[in-house]
């Protein structure tokens, strides 16, 4: 039955499309989470087998921050214990980095998937009861906490929870439980933003 | 024993960056398909209305975990060459708590914010700026928190090491736990859906 | 990349490897775009589409005029003896690609200006009423317009090809020293220009046509890149080393990720879906194609200067 409605919706699209106008393609619903998880698991496994390392995201931002600080205040960046670890001996740019290219792939992979499903459109993700301005302020505060926490924990949800989780790292599992604990602890106070 | 390929010098650093891009495309594609480009779906996880995050994440972990277990069991993958970050238990738990709060306040995690950005969500751009700022703050404060950052180092320790169980046993237990979590998630969604109707 | 010690000393060729900055790649890119735009405009003129109100042949020449001037300016910035530029135009050397290039660039200007004269905008007529007279005279002679279209296509092709020939005639740089480089630059310029017109076209027929054409150009470009690499790999040792620079050397990530991945394959997938009405037309794929074309010139110029005979 669902397959039939699926086919019918396609037929309808083609009929409205026979004029050569800017066709408007409807956004498709998200895929089955278990299939997606299986696919994501295979991508992660491929990273282990090919590279001997997992996925990540926040490390790429660290490289960008390092390059930015190094451009503005090179002496300061080199004397700072954290930035200098990203700068290395200075022969290779911190942007020529595995995670930077991986995140570039994430951006284009997400774009491609969204494009093929008609889901690339502007907008702000928020509940109906909150203003865009408020949402932006919370997004920035949340991002700041996220950046700080990710550095303290040596990785974010991708680098620690997903990668370390699959490799059964003790710290990663402790981290993952802490993430859920922290999220559920604050969720009640944030409900206006989302619901 | 011939994997991980990179550690056995099948290709050099420059080629590894091309592979990074290809793997990243797969990662981003999967995240977007899963609905992780939407902050509302991600946040719904914490209100039990949509458990996609848990389902996708645990399915991925279980898939990769079983794959790694199997490939190392048959001797194809040398697990000692796969990078597992050292455990610094207290900083990681504290970092996880801060990150969890940031998750529900900001609506994304770094990886998903890039997907949301690429599908045009404006709040994701603000979020990424926030992450950048947070990392900058961390690095500037690093001299003061360096001791804490390096405290409680337990080395490269995994769940099987810590609990003294065999690798296969832990894999089995994690699969059981995941199946339980999936059942609970499906049940929870149904309960919340009913609650939503009765409102 | 390794240091080289040599006793040979050809000024700015042998011991000094990288002497070209951003100016040359930018110029090569802009020149390629203009070449592609001229070919597209010429095709529409040949098809007698100039009477259509929304024809891209009415505004694309203006864009190419601006881009060509910017490109010439970048080239001028690169010149060592700026005041002697005029001397290029006191002679014509049949065997020198440089001489060909200088003259092609000069002939391209009147061709674009005549194209503008076919359908002049209102403000131009108000300012110079005489323009109307010439325009009418031209429009009464359809065969002339057809021929201007053909001239545009020929000159565009020459402009697009010459940038590649200029590089490949330089034997001291093995990566450039491949006889297929002109085709790569020509088809890359065409795909960039088609992407641009696809992005801005108001006319639905032209947009669809150029999206399809762009898909063809991008597919062809992939083949040309493949052929270029095969050609280098089956040549002498220095050419193989040069190919390795973009196959697994320091330029490989930029080349495969930015030029081939983001500049060709991803936009090709999106545009293939778009022309089949599976996804909406968006400016993103064309932007990727155009940026990919720019980065292609940078990679080829930079890697070429690193490749050497020893």
Describe this structure in words.
The complex is a heterotrimer of chains A (195), B (199) and C (310). Chain A is mostly helical. Chain A is 69% helix and 0% strand. Chain A is built from 10 helices and no strands. In chain A, helix 3 packs across helix 5, helix 3 packs across helix 6 and helix 8 packs across helix 9 (170-187). The radius of gyration of chain A is 21 Å and the shape is globular. The model of chain A is unreliable at 1-5 and 7-23 (pLDDT under 50). With 199 residues, chain B is an all-alpha fold. Chain B is 71% helix and 3% strand. Chain B contains 8 helices and 2 strands, in the order αααβαααβαα. In chain B, strands 1-2 form a two-stranded antiparallel sheet. In chain B, helix 1 (13-33) packs across helix 5 (110-118), helix 3 (52-73) packs antiparallel against helix 8 and helix 5 (110-118) runs antiparallel to helix 6. Chain C has 310 residues and is mainly alpha-helical. Chain C is built from 11 helices and no strands. Chain C is globular. The mean pLDDT of chain C is 86. At the B-C interface, helix 1 of B face helix 10 of C.
Descriptive labels:
heterotrimer, B: 199 residues, mainly alpha, two-stranded antiparallel ribbon, 8 helices, C: 310 residues, 11 helices, 70% helix, globular
Distance between the termini of chain A: 32 Å
Strand order of the largest sheet of chain B: 1-2
Low-pLDDT ranges of chain A: 1-5, 7-23
Helix content of chain B: over 70%
Largest sheet of chain A: none
- Judging from the principal axes of the Cα atoms, what is the shape of chain B? globular
Work out the largest interface and the residue count of each chain.
Answer: A-B, 121 and 126 residues
Oligomer state equals heterotrimer
Radius of gyration of chain B from CA coordinates:
20 Å
Alpha carbon gap, first and last residue of chain B: 59 Å
Topology:
The complex is a heterotrimer of chains A (195), B (199) and C (310).
Chain A: H1 2-17, H2 33-51, H3 58-72, H4 74-79, H5 81-87, H6 98-116, H7 132-152, H8 157-166, H9 170-187, H10 191-194
Helix pairs in contact in A: 3-5, 3-6, 8-9
Chain B: H1 13-33, H2 39-44, H3 52-73, E1 87-88, H4 89-106, H5 110-118, H6 122-149, E2 153-155, H7 159-163, H8 167-198
Antiparallel strand pairs in B: 1-2
Helix pairs in contact in B: 1-5, 3-8, 5-6
Chain C: H1 23-46, H2 60-78, H3 97-118, H4 122-127, H5 130-139, H6 142-168, H7 181-200, H8 204-233, H9 237-247, H10 252-275, H11 284-306
């Amino acid at each position: 039955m669902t397959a039939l409605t699926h086919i019918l919706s396609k037929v309808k699209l083609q009929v409205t499309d026979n004029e050569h106008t800017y066709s408007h393609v409807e956004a498709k619903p998200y895929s089955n989470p278990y299939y997606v998880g299986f696919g994501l698991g295979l991508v992660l496994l491929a990273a282990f087998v090919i590279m001997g390392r997992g996925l990540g995201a926040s490390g790429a931002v660290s490289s960008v921050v390092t390059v930015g600080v190094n451009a503005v205040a090179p002496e300061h960046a080199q004397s700072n214990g954290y930035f200098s670890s990203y700068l290395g001996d200075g022969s290779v740019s911190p942007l020529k980095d595995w995670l930077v290219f991986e995140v570039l792939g994430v951006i284009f992979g997400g774009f491609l998937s969204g494009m093929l499903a008609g889901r690339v459109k502007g907008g702000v993700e928020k509940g109906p009861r909150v203003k865009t301005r408020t949402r932006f302020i919370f997004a920035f505060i949340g991002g700041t906490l996220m950046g700080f926490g990710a550095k303290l924990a040596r990785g974010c949800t991708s680098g620690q929870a997903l990668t370390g989780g699959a490799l059964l790292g003790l710290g990663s599992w402790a981290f993952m439980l802490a993430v859920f604990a922290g999220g559920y602890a604050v969720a009640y106070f944030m409900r206006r933003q989302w619901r | 024993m011939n994997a991980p390929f990179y550690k056995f010098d099948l290709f050099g650093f420059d080629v590894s960056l091309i592979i990074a891009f290809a793997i990243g495309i797969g990662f981003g594609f999967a995240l977007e398909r899963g609905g992780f480009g939407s902050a509302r779906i991600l946040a719904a996880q914490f209100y039990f209305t949509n458990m996609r995050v848990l389902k996708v994440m645990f399915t991925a972990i279980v898939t990769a975990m079983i794959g790694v277990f199997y490939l190392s069991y048959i001797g194809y993958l040398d697990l000692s060459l796969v990078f597992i970050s050292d455990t610094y238990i207290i900083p990681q738990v504290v970092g996880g708590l801060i990150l969890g709060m940031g998750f529900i306040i900001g609506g994304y995690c770094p990886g998903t914010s890039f997907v949301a950005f690429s599908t045009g969500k404006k709040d994701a751009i603000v979020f990424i700026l926030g992450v950048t700022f947070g990392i900058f703050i961390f690095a500037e404060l690093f001299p003061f928190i360096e001791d804490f950052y390096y405290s409680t180092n337990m080395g490269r320790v995994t769940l099987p090491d810590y609990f003294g169980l065999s690798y296969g046993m832990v894999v089995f237990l994690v699969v059981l736990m995941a199946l339980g979590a999936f059942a609970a998630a499906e049940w929870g969604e149904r309960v919340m859906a009913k609650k939503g109707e009765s409102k | 990349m390794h240091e080289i010690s040599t006793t040979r000393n050809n000024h700015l060729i042998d011991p000094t490897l990288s002497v070209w900055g951003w100016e040359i790649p930018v110029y090569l890119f802009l020149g390629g775009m203009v070449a592609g735009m001229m070919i597209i405009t010429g095709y529409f003129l040949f098809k007698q589409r100039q009477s259509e109100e929304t024809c891209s042949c009415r505004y694309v020449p203006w864009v190419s005029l601006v881009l060509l001037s910017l490109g010439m300016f970048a080239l001028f910035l690169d010149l060592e003896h700026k005041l002697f530029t005029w001397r290029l135009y006191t002679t014509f050397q049949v065997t020198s690609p440089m001489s060909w290039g200088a003259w092609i660039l000069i002939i391209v200007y009147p061709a674009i200006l005549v194209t503008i004269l076919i359908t002049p905008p209102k403000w131009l007529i108000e300012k110079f009423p005489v323009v109307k007279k010439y325009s009418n005279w031209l429009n009464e002679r359809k065969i002339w317009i057809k021929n201007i279209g053909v001239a545009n296509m020929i000159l565009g092709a020459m402009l697009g090809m010459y940038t590649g020939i200029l590089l490949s005639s330089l034997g001291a740089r093995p990566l450039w020293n491949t006889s297929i480089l002109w085709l790569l630059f020509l088809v890359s310029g065409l795909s960039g220009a088609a992407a641009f017109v696809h992005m801005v076209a108001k006319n639905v027929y032209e947009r669809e046509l150029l999206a399809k054409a762009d898909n063809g150009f991008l597919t062809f470009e992939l083949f040309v890149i493949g052929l270029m690499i095969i050609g280098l790999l089956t040549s002498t040792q220095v050419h193989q080393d040069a190919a390795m620079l973009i196959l697994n050397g320091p330029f490989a990530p930029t080349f495969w990720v930015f030029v081939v991945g983001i500049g060709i394959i991803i936009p090709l997938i999106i545009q293939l879906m778009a022309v089949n009405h599976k996804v909406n037309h968006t400016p993103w794929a064309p932007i990727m194609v155009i940026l990919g074309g720019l980065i292609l010139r940078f990679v080829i110029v930079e890697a070429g200067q690193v490749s050497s005979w020893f």
